[in-house]
Amino acid sequence: MMDEERQALVAELVKNAIPGWAIAVVRLNKAVADRLGVAESDVQCLHVLDRLGPATPGALAKQVGLTTGSASRMIDRLVAAGCVRRVADPGDRRRVLIEPTPDGIARVSAAYAGLITRTEQSLAPFDDRALETILEFVRSAHRDTAAELHHLPTPTD
Amino acid sequence: MMDEERQALVAELVKNAIPGWAIAVVRLNKAVADRLGVAESDVQCLHVLDRLGPATPGALAKQVGLTTGSASRMIDRLVAAGCVRRVADPGDRRRVLIEPTPDGIARVSAAYAGLITRTEQSLAPFDDRALETILEFVRSAHRDTAAELHHLPTPTD
DNA sequence: ACGCAGTAGCTGCGCGACGCAGCTAATTTA
DNA sequence: TAAATTAGCTGCGTCGCGCAGCTACTGCGT
């Protein structure tokens, strides 16, 4: 059985602190999309490309949570905005690789430069031991969220 | 000057771990909206109501990042879905208070019950000292994100 | 070698969420 | 009391999205 102190800490984290942060993150994502003049999906797509490198439209559709048709239009917009390029796959002539342009990467990272600076400053008071704890936590939170993504999508209810 | 170990930890956090989590959070938010059969803004609205209690349409519009007109339609949808109620403000007859229904609260928290359980399990290995560190970090990250929202918004701001 | 199912991506169409501008009603101010 | 301000709601155009169907290419089986 958990002691009360610990229970209160966990409850505060999962019921208040983390959800509050998550809500702000979603709002910020929308704000960034509005600021860049693109759809939220487009920003998400650029994030995925920035993290995973070139990918096919089909893979991007899965990552972003769109149908392949909508992903095709999304890529059209990003190409028109000069953020990505369509590159033919020589090995399979059906496939197309979507590749972020330097300008696309620069634009999206510029939008987050302020937040990164703020966060670095907020991390300053923590010692190395604490930073390791935080990193471990963030990674586990990422795993949990990703896992939930694969268990939740049951539209057939 | 920071030692290299510390610099690597901070860089990993702000350039990989946190963005990776944030991307998953945005995807999950969209997945939950799809699952509940409502717009992403609607889910965000329910979150805000859950955390802050009854609010006016204007306040909700600000919190969610919509115009008052779009917020009005959003509330129409949530009323139709049985998630919120419009309650007249007796003190100011122009104003309307939006109040979540028990059913609305229940539905949105049910959608996140799995994630909360997962997260509680992931927090089990951390001792009380580590949990305090994590809580402190999450709160500061929340503050940073919220602050960025007010500095980034519209170019006309 | 040939045909046929499977895969990858793109397009016509309708739906719905959004912003904008304008409206009414109620409150506040001069 | 009249004018200005605030709160919320509605017509209309725009645009992102899913769905279904299409073409092009691959690879499997006979």
List the helices and strands and how they pair.
Two copies of one chain form a homodimer.
Chain A: H1 4-36, H2 40-52, H3 57-64, H4 68-80, E1 84-88, E2 96-100, H5 102-123, H6 128-151
Antiparallel strand pairs in A: 1-2
Helix pairs in contact in A: 1-2, 3-4
The structure holds a DNA duplex (30 and 30 nucleotides).
Radius of gyration of chain A: 19 Å
CATH class of the largest domain in chain A: Mainly Alpha
Unreliable stretches of chain A: none
Biggest pleated sheet of chain A: 2 strands, antiparallel
How much strand content do the residues of chain A show?
5-15%
Largest interface: A-B, 73 and 71 residues
Q: Helix content range of the residues of chain A, please?
A: over 70%
What order do the SSEs of chain A take from the amino end to the carboxyl end, as H and E? HHHHEEHH
Output the structural class of chain A.
Answer: mainly alpha
Oligomer: homodimer
> What is the distance, rounded to the nearest whole angstrom, between the alpha carbons of the first and last residues of chain A?
35 Å
Shape of chain A: elongated
CATH homologous superfamily identity of the largest domain in chain A: Winged helix-like DNA-binding domain superfamily/Winged helix DNA-binding domain
Name the average pLDDT of chain A.
94
Q: Please state the second-level CATH architecture of the largest domain in chain A.
A: Orthogonal Bundle
Helical stretch tally of chain A: 6
- Please give the number of β-strands of chain A: 2
CATH fold assignment of the largest domain in chain A? Arc Repressor Mutant, subunit A
Q: Domains counted in the coordinates of chain A: how many?
A: 2
Main-sheet strand order of chain A equals 1-2
